[in-house]
Design a protein that fits this description.
alpha/beta; Rossmann fold; 7-stranded parallel β-sheet; 27 helices; 18 strands; about 15% strand; binds iron/sulfur cluster
């Protein structure tokens, strides 16, 4: 029987498949540990530092185990990378015969029913939309998977993309005329029959919710579930275990009612007027709030604004629409679907207004033109455990950032994983030789008025030493915008700013542009891999503490206090440490990389908690002297 060491040793099968294969002790060790974890039927929470090669380190033992495996990762992009690059290599190394499948959420697959409906309702489409729709129709007859990622001939942001996919609410399921050819269900069926399925956390978490509610399942049962990029799980689980309704969903319902009316009735004058009134009142609820994005505590807003007046008016109009729909729902499947959906949404809002439970928080999010009513559990650990237990599988959680000084408590507590065994494999990179950490002590405290100008001035100096080749990572969009305005006038290097172009394109531009400087916020703090000289300097403006005004954070901190814990030291500091570790991790991606990391927040040195945060970072030699940075780059 093939063993882990036959694959990873210096002359093992991987060495025949990878040019310049370098044996990594940490990688082989991790593969052994995962193999024994699976063999013994235990659960594992483990951190593998950057450069360990963790993907192959878990894929190989997963294949060797001959068990049914689900691998869940952070994004669709990582899913594709795993499926197209790492998995074929691991399969070849193990010489394994397995059926594999990549499964994404329903919004990634063509919905034949919605495409057909759109073909018959083109009155709102412009010339470009029509041309995109033609491309879709042509592609639909040749695609095997229905994965809309294959639609490279239409723009990423084409409105047609959202019109040819389904949501859980508007899918007709088994009563759909296209059910037998449906890509969503065909892909799910193939996944049920596969030995190894690669999915993402979003789909897995929604599968957990479906199972719990008894609405069936999307993913197969498995013997082993491996969560990669597992640091993302607590935040994502909190979102998926929340219940939400948005003004966008209500407006979509109105659009679908109009289509259903045209297709299956067409004689309801009364409905048109009722829908127009309902639509106006949905928009009036949004207008209670100003334009900027924010997150607010429901109770505070409900008691102190026009929200209660506008929402009550909207609910009366909603009820009138539902009464009309009820009378005609038996005329067709589309009308019936709209009526059922509308009833569920109405009931949700009705209960939302009345429910006040200590274990959950009601909060409002204002994002763009829309408003979201959310109901989020304060503590997700019990729910996560309960839902995970439904799979009855061995669970392995891995990422480059789960522990703080080898301590997994903060992470494990959030997901109820305290009983799992844990392990850390440090990065094989030589941080003492490859890096330098610069923390300027002469900058003002980040909360002081003069901080921003001093930060900009210091950044300009640092960029002159590194000659661009830099990421400037911000903790807020506001700071990013303000800095982008000034830096674009004051430095000679090409500047790339988050939001100008899609993230992946911006990264390609960064790699291809000499001396580039990229300015980004949270989405660039993780999951970004730029090797070589192109990225030699990472500047971080502040410690990434979550906004203290955030209603969900406030509820969690209260929960920690009530349990007799220290909310700051037990929650906020570890959260910032993990975030900082992610940001710092962008710098060194290879054994030959060199670079300087700069944290423009002296609290990491001057405060007691700062020292705890610094100790969580890779072991970089630290300096407070600007000239040391110049010397490093010389
Ligand atoms: S079953 Fe649902 S997803 Fe499939 S084609 Fe019909 S409406 Fe679309």
């Amino acid at each position: 029987m093939t063993k882990v060491k036959d694959i990873f040793s210096k002359d093992g099968s991987l060495s025949n498949l990878i040019d310049d294969y370098q044996h990594r002790t940490e990688q082989e060790d991790m593969a052994h540990k995962i193999f024994s974890t699976i063999s013994k039927g235990k659960n594992l929470v483990c951190e593998a530092g950057t450069g360990t090669g963790k993907t192959i380190a878990y894929l190989v033992p997963a294949l060797l185990s001959k068990q049914k495996v689900i691998i869940s990762t952070g994004t669709r992009h990582l899913q594709d990378q795993l499926y197209q690059k790492d998995l074929p290599l691991a399969i070849e190394a193990v010489a394994s015969v397995v059926t594999t499948m990549v499964l994404k959420g329903r919004s990634n697959y063509l919905c034949l029913h919605h495409m057909e409906t759109l073909i018959h309702n083109t009155k709102d489409l412009n010339y470009q939309n029509m041309s995109d729709l033609q491309e879709v129709v042509q592609w639909s007859s040749s695609t095997k998977t229905g994965d809309i990622n294959e639609l490279v001939m239409i723009e990423e942001n084409s409105v047609i993309r959202s019109k040819i996919t389904s949501t859980i609410e508007n899918c007709l399921g088994q009563s759909c005329p296209s059910f037998n050819d449906c890509f969503v269900f065909k892909n799910r069926k193939a996944a049920l029959e596969s030995d190894l399925v690669i999915t993402n956390h979003h789909l897995l978490l929604s599968d957990m919710s479906l199972r719990e509610k008894g609405f069936g399942e999307v993913l197969p049962m498995a013997d082993v579930i491996i969560f990669d990029e597992a640091h993302q799980l607590p935040e994502l689980a909190s979102t998926y275990f929340s219940q939400t309704i948005s003004s966008r969903q209500l407006l979509e319902l109105i659009t679908d009612i109009k289509i259903a009316d045209r297709e299956e009735a067409g004689d309801m004058q009364q409905l048109e007027g009722a829908l127009a009134k309902f639509e106006k009142e949905i928009r009036d609820v949004r207008l209670v709030f100003s334009r900027e994005d924010k997150r607010l505590n429901w109770l505070e807003v409900w008691e102190n604004s026009l929200l209660s007046v506008e929402l009550t008016k909207m609910m009366i109009s909603f009820q009138i629409v539902l009464d009309i729909l009820e009378n005609v729902s038996q005329r067709g499947k589309l009308l019936d679907n709209c009526w059922q959906r509308g009833k569920a949404q109405y009931n949700f809002i009705d209960v939302y207004i009345e429910t006040n439970k200590e274990e959950s928080i009601r909060w409002i999010e204002i994002r763009g033109h829309h408003l979201y009513l959310n109901h989020t559990p304060v503590n997700i650990s019990e729910t996560f455990q309960k839902r995970l237990n439904e799979y009855n599988a061995i669970s392995i959680f891995t990422s480059a950032t789960l522990a703080i000084n080898d301590d997994f408590n903060y992470y494990s507590r959030q997901l109820g994983l305290e009983e799992c065994q844990t392990h850390v494999w440090n990065s094989p990179f030589d941080y003492q030789k490859q890096t330098c950490l610069y923390v300027p002590l002469d900058l003002p405290d980040p909360n002081q008025f003069k901080y921003f100008d001093a930060f900009i001035e210091r950044t300009i100096k640092l960029l002159s030493y590194s000659q661009g080749h830099a990421f400037i990572l911000f903790t807020s969009h506001q700071a990013l915008k303000k800095s982008a305005n000034i830096l674009s006038k004051k430095i000679k290097y090409p500047i790339l700013i988050q939001g100008q172009t899609p993230r992946s394109e911006l990264l390609n531009q960064f790699r291809d542009t000499e001396h580039a400087v990229l300015l980004g916020t949270s989405s660039f703090w993780e999951g970004v891999d730029v090797k070589g000289e192109a990225l030699s300097l990472v500047v971080i403006d502040k410690l990434p503490f979550a906004s203290p005004d955030d209603p969900v954070l406030q509820a969690r901190l209260n929960h920690y206090s009530k349990k007799g814990m220290n909310p700051f030291m037990d929650y906020q500091v570890p959260q910032a440490a993990i975030g900082l570790k992610q940001g710092v991790g962008r710098l060194i991606r290879d054994v030959t990389d060199r670079g300087v990391c700069v944290i423009c927040d002296k609290r990491v040195v001057t405060k007691v908690y700062g020292k705890r945060i610094i100790r969580a970072l890779p072991p970089m030699p630290m300096t407070h002297v600007l000239d040391d940075v110049r010397i490093f780059f010389n």
